[in-house]
Structures are given as structure tokens and as C-alpha cells.
Amino acid sequence: MTVFKRVAASAAMALSLAGLLATSTPSLATNVAGVAATPVSAMTVSGINVADVAMVPQSARATMSALPDFSQVSEGDEDGDYDSLADAVADQDEIASSEELRCLAGAIYFEGRGEPLAGQLAVAQVILNRTKSGRFPTGVCDVIKQRGQFSFVRRGEIPSVSPSHTAYRTAVAVAKVALAQAWDSTAGKALYFNTPGNRPGVRVQKVAAIGNHIFYR
């Protein structure tokens, strides 16, 4: 047999063997639902050869922890409800961070220090009611500094108070409660208040009596 014939015979045997393997062994090229599957070695995802991606062994996958279930994690009570006015006041910090807050805290301090918390909140409520009434200035500081309205105002200014004073820190907390509407005041829609026996010089209706003040609308 010549060299050429031996090469041809070897090639024929190789082709026959390949055909036998193709018919006896399942292949990745087998059609699935009429669609030819692509061998893993030839598949690419966004330019990445899947054959080069390390696969997690089954034994390792079996030991992986499940993702934590956050469905039962409490988000806390954020509805702002309080059991008492004292709780609402205690929950506030005592930093007067704005001019509006400083003005309101000053009015509460000078008009309501020594009064129960409900009385201090009622003082704040009167001031806030005035800003919405259309009969007084619309700003908290402007309402307080309006001429002839509050006797503690001096030359159109609210006297300064030491921020370390306990009563002033309480006034700041009460002012925050009032501005945030975190507690309903018993003063309701009152626009005036005065001590007993000193009725406002306008036609008014009594709303509430709290501490040493009578509140009117």
C-alpha cells in the first residue's frame, strides 16, 4: 500500500469513527424543540465566553445561606403620637435654630413661664392663630412685635434670654411642639389671652381658662 493510500484509509477510518460517536452519544448540538442548541464552549454573553466563567460546585451551593427576610423588621413608631403633652415636650431638643422659633420661644418664656405646659402651649397657639386669622401680621415674629400687643416687647424687640435658663429651654421645646402641631392645645382658636379681671379691650368670647390666663376668641 502506498503512502497516499495509507493516508486515505486512515482518513476514512477517522470519519467512520466520528460518525459512530455522533449517533451513539448525546451531543450539546442536539435540537431542543426544533432549535439547535449552541455548545457551551461557543456561547458568549456580552463578549464573555461562558466556558471561562467559574461555576459554583453543587456542594458549595448547598451550603449557601438564604437571603435574610426583612419583611418582619420593624420600622419603628414614626407617627409622632404622644401619650401626653409632657412626653411631646420631653421629646424635643432645646436648640432654637430659627428666628421664628426664637421669637415664639421668647413669647412663651415671658408670657408663660411658671404656667403649666398646657398654658405655655396655649400662649403659642394664640400667636400661631393670629398669623392665620387675616387680622394680624402673617409672621410669628411680626405678630409678637406688633405695637401694643405684648407688654414684654421693648422698642419693637424681644428681650434676649440666656439659652441655658431652664425655663427658656422648656419654652423652646413647647414652641417646637406648637409649630409641629404635635399636640392639640385646649386654647383652640383663641386670639387673645389675659389675666383674670383684665379682659381684652375688644369684643371677645371666652374659650378656656388655663393656669393664670383666660383665653378668648
From TrEMBL:
Residues 114-216 form the Cell wall hydrolase SleB domain. Keywords: Hydrolase, Signal. It holds the Pfam family Hydrolase_2. Residues 1-29 form the signal peptide. It comes from the Bacteria. One of its GO terms (molecular function) is hydrolase activity. The keyword Hydrolase applies. This is Cell wall hydrolase. Coiled coil: none annotated. InterPro entries: Cell_wall_hydrolase_SleB (IPR011105), SleB_dom1 (IPR042047). It comes from Sphingomonas yabuuchiae.
